[in-house]
Amino acid sequence: MAVVLLTGGSAMQAGAADGRSAAGLARAAAIQDAERPARAPQRRRPASPRWISIPAAGVSARVESVAARRGVLRVPAVGVAGWYRGGPRPGEAGRAVIIGHLDTKTGPALFARVSRLLPGATVSVTDARGDVWSYDVVGAAQVDKDDFPAEEVYGGSASPVLVLITCGGPFSEEEGYRDNVLVYARPV
Amino acid sequence: MRRPIKRVALCIIVSMSILLSAAAAEALAATEVRILHAVPGAAKAELKVEGAEGEAATLPPVGFGEASEYSSPQAGSVTATVLVDGRPFAGTTEFGGDGRYTIVASLRADSEIVTLYEDGRAVAGKTRWRVVHAAAELDTAELMLDGRSLGELGRGEEADYSTVEPGVHTIGARRPGEEGALVESPDVSLVAGTAQTAYLVGSGGEPTRFTVLQDDASAPSVAPATGLGGLGDDGGPSWRAALLAAALAGALGGAAYAGANVRHHRRRS
Fold it and tell me: How far is the alpha carbon of A133 from chain B, nearest alpha carbon, in Å?
């Protein structure tokens, strides 16, 4: 089960005829829009990200680097965003991934409003040198965790793309949240 | 009484190990293959892949200088047949084992050549890349990265993977001993956490160029758990419920205070 949140549009129409799922089309559209070159790629490598700001979602928080162990991405502390350090840094070619908690046991957490971001919302990431990498949200999709599209999240891209991840969908004590919400953004 | 328990535990551990290692072997022993079309003058190339158990698939055709996606994983050995413009090209190739492969269809002095390359794995945080020389009419090419010579490659040869700083690079090739570049691609993105291959293709009427493909990306395979249930519909005391309760308590408190005030005023008057 997957739910479309918002999408770029054209890919959705083009793919509807060939039977692909709406969620798959939404992701495809979001990825396609995110990878469209917006500016010349930077030649100087950005430093590791240190701060993320998403005014439309009320996010202004420290970013720590997180690693994956045996295929599982470690999650950051509540109140802090986590950048997957095995992939690209924000500002450089490829899909930079930043994750954050939807909620704690008792209330909303850092990325509680990330799933409600609309296209055009600004995401700014400040790196360790103080350079700011700004992105515009282009689309989002809600995907079943049992069918997590790792390639579409962590796969390569010739242009810089930012992927925000948090939880979504129904919650159960045994399984946790059923879904992940993926938000794709491209450089301003 | 302790020994039988120990034996049972040992049996369980051994059985679990066998099951787990069998599952791991099954998971690992998957072969994926794709095709790169480097045959000048041919409109399209496609790859027919046949698994050990007889299952067959034909990957969608690609144009010159293009590559297909990887085939779906096949267990055991794989037989691949290249079709160029609809006809079989250079016989079949059989290979197998865990891994990803790229089959390059090309020409050498009008001979049909199919070359199998084993693709490398990505390493988290590293940018791995290599060059494969598949240009039809260029015996040897000197390869350049950002103006620096990387050495020479003969036609059909592959360089070892090496690690570079991620970012945008200029890759080029020239004839050995010549000053000017035969080809120069100034905006090649070499991405952190991936393994990529730059294939030198062309000649025979096709301009020489690089086709840069991603061989692998380092990726956590499991969805991250970024929620603890405070906003969930089945997550214990919901924050919305808590807010509602607080608001209700406030309203009740306010009403009680107002009522007490009214009574107090009535008594005084």
Answer: 15
Interface mutation vs chain B, best among A48, A127, A143, A177, most B CBs within 10 Å? A177
- Tell whether A104 lies on the interface with B, counting CB pairs under 8 A: yes
| Domain extent at residue B40 | 29-119
Tell me which CATH code domain A3-39+46-187 carries. Answer: 2.40.260.10
Residue B122, token pair as written in the block: 């990505």
Q: Structural domain boundaries of chain A?
A: 3-39+46-187
Q: Which of A76, A85, A91, A95 is nearest to A166 (CA)?
A: A76
- Assess if residue B139 is contained within a domain: yes
- Quick count: other Cβ atoms within 10 Å of Cβ B238? 20
Average pLDDT over residues B221-230: 89
| Per-residue pLDDT reduced to its tens digit, B182-219 | 999 988 989 998 999 999 999 888 899 999 999 998 88
- Chain A hits for B234, CB-CB cut-off 8 Å, are 170-173
- Which CATH number fits the domain that encloses residue B38? 2.60.40.2890
Instruction: Measure in Å the smallest separation between the Cα of A148 and chain B Cα atoms.
Output: 6
